[in-house]
Design brief:
- This protein is α+β, with helices and mostly antiparallel strands and 120 residues long.
- The chain has one domain.
- The protein has one helix and twelve strands, in the order αββββββββββββ.
- It has a three-stranded antiparallel beta sheet with strand order 3-4-12, with no helix packed on it. It has a three-stranded antiparallel beta sheet with strand order 7-8-11, with no helix packed on it.
- The longest helix has 20 residues.
- It is globular.
């Protein structure tokens, strides 16, 4: 009976473990860096890990540089610029005229919002 209880506890923890791992990246030193949600952490071209704030988004711009926002981010289809919601955890979308619309207003994505997780 005790073995069955232990097995059930282990099996119930598997979905949470799998969920966590899918929000992770592995940097150039083999360190696993995880965010609490999808698109929070990303690798740059040198395989250094960068993460956005807890409710933010990390992505790469058209030059391959890592940029982040405190909320969701979206690429403007006309300019290629990345805009993010000014509100922490805010959402973004594209309106019928293909213009970015962001909760709390739109701000350009910036590397200064990101935190480098891989030591130099």
């Amino acid at each position: 009976m005790k073995a069955l209880t232990t097995l059930l506890l282990m099996l119930s923890a598997l979905p949470a473990f799998a969920q966590e791992r899918k929000h992770c990246v592995v940097d150039l030193r083999g360190n696993q860096v995880c965010g609490v949600r999808a698109n929070q952490c990303i690798l740059d071209r040198y395989r250094a890990a960068w993460c956005a704030p807890a409710n933010g988004t990390a992505t790469t711009d058209r030059y391959g540089e890592v940029v982040c926002g405190v909320g969701g981010c979206i690429t403007d289809s006309r300019s290629g610029d990345i805009f993010c919601a000014a509100k922490e955890g805010g959402t973004t979308l594209t309106d019928p005229a293909s213009k970015a619309v962001c909760e709390g207003g739109c701000v350009p994505a910036s590397q200064s919002v990101c935190q480098r997780m891989t030591p130099d």
